[in-house]
Amino acid sequence: MCELYSKQDTLALRKKHIGPSCKIFFAADPIKIVRAQRQYMFDEKGEQYLDCINNVAHVGHCHPEVVKAAMKQMELLNTNSRFLHDNIVEYAKRLCATLPEKLSVCYFTNSGSEANDLALRLARQFRGHQDVITLDHAYHGHLTSLIEISPYKFRKGKDVKKEFVHVAPIPDTYRGKYREDHPDPTSAYADEVKKIIEEAHKNGRKIAAFIAESMQSCGGQVIPPTGYFQKVAEYVRAAGGVFIADEVQVGFGRVGKHFWSFQMHGEDFVPDIVTMGKPMGNGHPVACVVTTKEIAEAFCSSGMEYFNTYGGNPVSSAVALAVLDIIENEDLQGNATRVGGYLTELLKKQKAKHTLIGDVRGVGLFIGIDLVKDHQRRTPATAEAQHVIYKMKEKRVLLSADGPHRNVLKIKPPMCFSEEDAKFLVDQLDGILTVLEEAIGTNPEGVTISENTPGRTKKPKEAHVELLSEGAPEQKENPSQKRNGLCTDKQSQLSKRLKT
Ligand SMILES: Cc1ncc(COP(=O)(O)O)c(C=O)c1O
Which residue windows does the record flag with biased composition (Basic and acidic residues) (predicted)? Predict the structure, then answer.
C-alpha cells in the first residue's frame, strides 16, 4: 500500500491540521491520489483516472528522466545561486534561445506567484511608475501584491480594488463585451485599455505595467483576438509602462506550434517581461522571470540585491533542463498540435450534437468547452458544468470547470495525452451530456438539477457549497485496478515503518 492512513483518517487529519481555505478537488467526494504516471493518476484502491487538468505534470507525471535528473544532482550538490554553477547558466542559455532575442536576462524563483511579484517590481522600478492594468477575471498568484491585481480573487473577497489597479475588459469574443459579430473586436478591446490609460493620466496616475496571461486560463480558457496584444503594448509603452506576459499556465509548448503562447500573436509582438512556472519543473517548484537587458539594468540601479535562496539552485535547474530535453526529444509540441487538433475536432462535432455546448475553443492542448443553457443568450450552464465534472469523475476522467461563471470545462492535460485518451474523454462526455439533455428536455432554463435528474449522482452526507451534484462514485471494480494499484515493496515497507 502507498498510504500512511486510511482515506477517512487522511481526511480527518486534513480537516484538523490544514487551513480550511485550502480547498480540495471534488470536495464532496474527494479522491485520494497515491501515485501517477504519464497522463494517469491512481487512487488508493488502484483506480486509474485520466488526467485532463494537470498542466504542471507537463511531460507526464513522474517522468523517469526528470526523476533521474533530480536524483543525480541531489546526490552531488544543492546550494544557492551565489556560487558559480553550470546548471543555472546552461538553463538560462537554453531558455533564452526559445524566446525572442531581446528577452535575454533571467531571474529564478520558486513559484509563479514569486515570478509575477518580481515582474511587478521590475516594471515599477523601470520608470518609477506604480499603476497596473489587469484583465477582468485574471488570476496571477496568491501573494498580496498579486491578489491586488487578480480580479478572479479580489472580486470574491471583501477587499476593494486598490486605486493603483485598473481592470480592463477580458478580450473574450464569445461572451465578452465585444463579440464575434463586432466589426473589429481587437481594436474595441484595445481601445478600452487606451481609455483606462487616458483616465489614469487625467487623475495624475502613471502606468507601470499591463499584465495578462497570453491565454486566460482561470478566467475561462479565453484566447484573445489576434492583434490585441500588439495594440495594447503600443498604448502601454507610449504611457511609459511595460507589457508583462504571464505564461505560468500556458507556456512551454502547450499551444503546439509555438513554444510560448504569446508567439501566436505574431513575430512583431514581444513582451517586455515574461513570467513562467508550473510546467517548467514538471511538479518540482521552479519558476522564472525573463526580461530585457534595459529593464534588468534599471532594476539593478536601485542598488538592492535580488537574492532567492532556492531560485535556480542546481537541482531545480537540472530538473528544468530535463523538461526542456523531453519536450524536444518526445516531440511534445508536435503531439500537442496533433492530439489537441484531433480533440478539438471531436469536441466541435459534439457541439453540433449537444445543445448544452455553446462554444469549443482552444489551441493545442489548451481547450475550453463553454456550457450554456441557451445558445442565443449564452446563459452560463453553471450547475450543469458542475454536474458534468462529477459524472466525468465517476467515469474516471478528471476535468474541472472554471471561468467567472464556473461553466467552462477546462482541458489542459499532460502533453503526452494521446488520441485514445481524447476519444475516451469525448465518449464519456457525450454519454453524460446525452443523459443530462434528455433529463432537461427542451427547456433547460426551467429545470433545476436535482437528485431526481437521471444520471445525477447521489447526494453525499456532507455537501460542499461549490457543488450541485456531488456523490460517491460507483463502486464497480475497474479491470486496471489490481494491475495499476500495486506499489513497490519499498513503498509498502516505508509505509509500515512510518506507521509504527
Ligand atoms: C496564470 C497564473 N499565474 C500565476 C500563478 C501562480 O503560480 P503559483 O501557484 O506557482 O504561485 C498561477 C497559479 O495558478 C496562474 O494560473
Answer: 460-480
Is 386 a member of any domain? yes
Weakest mean pLDDT among 280-289, 393-402, 456-465 = 456-465
Tell me, using a 6 A CB cutoff, whether residue 140 lines ligand 1. Answer: yes
139 lines ligand 1 (CB under 6 A): yes
Grid coordinates standing for 307?
537574492
Does 247 contact ligand 1 (Cβ within 6 A)?
A: no
Residue 464 pLDDT more than 90?
Answer: no
The number of domains in the chain is 2
- Across the range 89-108, mean pLDDT stands at 98
156 and 297 part of one domain? yes
Residues 308 and 377 in one domain: no
Instruction: From 249, 308, 400, give the residue whose CB has the most ligand 1 atoms within 8 Å, as the site to mutate.
Output: 249
Residue 282 is classified by DSSP as: B
Same domain, 229 and 342: no
Question: Is a pLDDT exceeding 90 seen at residue 483?
Answer: no
Whole-number Å distance, alpha carbon 248 to ligand 1 midpoint, is: 6
Q: What is the pLDDT of residues 184-218, one digit of tens each?
A: 999 999 999 999 999 999 999 999 999 999 999 99
Domain span at 261? 64-330
Regarding the beta carbon of 213 and ligand 1, being less than 6 Å apart is answered: yes
Q: Tell me, what CATH number does 311's domain have?
A: 3.40.640.10
Q: Tell me the whole-structure pTM to 2 decimals.
A: 0.90
Residue 158 belongs to a domain: yes
**Last-in-domain residue among 294, 313, 330:** 330
Distance 225 CA to ligand 1 centre (A): 23
Taking the C-alpha atoms of residue 490 and residue 303, their distance in angstroms, rounded to an integer, is 51
147 alpha carbon – ligand 1 mean position (Å): 11
Strands 165-168 and 131-135: parallel
